[in-house]
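Question:
Write out your own:
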Amino acid sequence: MITFDEQQRVFHLKNKEISYLFSIEEGNILSHLYFGPAIRNYHGERRYPRVDRGFSGNLPGSMDRTYSKDDLLQEYSGNNTGDYRVPAIIIKTENGSRLTDFRYKSYKILPGKPKLAGLPASYVKSDKEAETLEVTLVDETIGAQLILSYTIYNERPVITRNARLVNTSNQELRIEKIASMQLDLTKHDYNVISVPGQYALERQPERQELRRGITEFSSRRNSSSHHMNPFVALVDKNTDEFQGNALGVLLVYSGNHQFTLEKDQIDQIRLITGINDYNFEWVLEPGKDFQTPEAIMGFSQCGLNGMSQVFHKLLRDRVARGKYQYADRPIVINNWEATFFDFDDKKLDQIIDEAKPLGIEMFVLDDGWFGHRNDDNSSLGDWFVNQDKLTGGLKRVADRTHEHCMKFGLWFEPEMISVDSKLYKEHPDYALHEPNRGMTLSRNQLVLDFSRKEVVDNIYNQMCLILDKVPLDYIKWDFNRNLTEVFSSAADAEHQGEVSHRYVLGLYDLMERLVTRYPNILFEGCSGGGGRFDAGILYYMPQSWPSDDTDAVERLKIQYGTSLTYPISSMTAHVSVSPNQQTGRSTSFKMRGDVAMSGVFGYELDLADLTEEDRQMVKEQIKFYKAHRHLIQYGDFIRLESPFDSNTAAWEFVSPDKSEALLFMFKQLHTNRFEINNTKMAGLDPTIDYHDEMTDKTYGGDELMNVGLFRDPTHTGDFTSEVHYFKGK
């Protein structure tokens, strides 16, 4: 899959679908050549054209004005040494210089894919799945090596990238910026798609034309954030869901991230991503190294759905891990909206008793079970049972749940601390803060300093005391505020710039230890909803809560946008009360169920308040979901109609062998125009017939994809939905 042409000095990473080419140019500078559909051979056409450009400097010691780093397409650019575009790396040396100029030294090709120390990343199960190219660059002046790593999978249109800096000098080096990857592309009219959002309205795709200058998408909240997910896509202007080139880049990281795109003076595009350089500085001692997070590049010629499928399959197959990677996920009832903080043994028993006859498979005890917590102002950091509420302890609740043949889950927020907690009174220095400065409260809580091993160890030991005694099947891991006062009392002035990244490394360490020690527990990520929905968390937790907004209409957009990158198996979705607590909107039980069944399904309401009609609906929804759960969670997900573009939305799930399909169709608002909506399916086998079990009609696969289905225009009312299950004959 990886070759090096000694004569042309060109590296070619290739499989059946993609090719990635770069060369060793004059001066031993790595020059990017091509990334796109696979080619058999390369004959030198993309070699850098020699042109004398005004005010573009030539290489040191050279009089050749036709060769300049200022407009050369590069693999990894230095700083302030002839390239005036955004740099990939900035290092400050002891004399105050911030110049970097890394040149090619050597390469090696490895079978498989090496692990990244202390960081989540994609992986292989066999060395035959992939090959890895490691290219070593050196900056002789500062005395450092930079190892650029490229992995290409054999059967996937995916290349992963990372960089590792090694200090080979006898002085300290201060890293002020270090990107995971850089991609320089020739002139082309690209659109860029990003996925910004806000709390309770996450991952709302935006598409814009790239103009000259710098465009940045980033988070400074020390999380991947509700506000800007660590993903962008470069697409052709004519690219839509089903056609056109789409190149996506996803950073496998849960902290401050940065995507910078620059369109230069001759309309070339540079894309750089990695840890955000905001407030970042890393002191690299002699002989030490620094490893960047992984960036995943996925490519498709089949539009946004094609690109999404590339990421869905990689994230599901080679980022998620463990017992639940492909397991059918249980249907959950959570007590939060039923009781909030006001519960005791009797109330919990009532929920458990109500849930079992409906077919629910797991009961989750949410916030309020620990310390002396009766509201959100106390007890975080004190992970021991609130005996005033649970007189029989957690084990009694777990045992009763298991006696009803249901699984038992529990809520934690391990990274936070309350001022009134026992832990804070004993260790006030455990909270992130700067001495003599006020501490910013958010949701009335502070953040633990996970850059310190002893703090991580404390929480790990507290959690183990619970998990070793209580038979748990599931943990919901919450993270309900962004970081402020990112300052560690255990670090000196020289190392404060490391705290934000060390925090993330501490988080990953805690998660890795817990999922290793408790492999039978299903961990679910949550961050005030979708504030840390990223591939880094997915490596430890195969599913996450996409948003605290459970309104079915809003969820159409949230789940649609999330699916641009992330698989359905990673996306939990629950039926909640109507009117919705976040929006006040009233929607039918059917639509709420159909939207929630388009993910990992569950309920977030008080079962005791259900009418008999609603109870029957719950039973029917659960029966239907159980029958089609594996298809929904692990089938091919295809977006058909966008809720951002029209009054309707539609998507489908198709089995890998195309023998069955589920079609979900939604209408938001009814109008007196009695609009006739025609939905065309995709991804079916055109040569076979499909029987619609809802209508008892049979259609050809070609018919469903080209003629389509009319929705009944006589259905009145807002917020309606239809579901059709097709079985191939």
Summary: The radius of gyration is 27 Å.
